[in-house]
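1st attempt posting a full record on here, be nice pls
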Amino acid sequence: MIRACFVHPEYARKGIGREMMRRSESGARDAGFTNIEIVATLPGEPLYAACGYLGFERFTLELPNGERLPVVRMRRGKKPNEAPATDPGGPSSVG
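the predicted structure (as tokens):
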């Protein structure tokens, strides 16, 4: 599981984020997952959308310091109103 990742602005738009996603998705598939669902910060949303993720729920996280962070829940390759596929006998989340 990846908790969070960020790319320094000097290295933005050089394919690092896409490569991280590619490797993460590959590892998840190898582990038997069939769907991926993420919670993205708003600045990260365009990257994930370009990688095939669709937003389906916007909400705000309250951080331990009291700050509020707007985010969007995204799912790879599923329409926003579709539930993710699950396998009751195993892992349930890569696209």
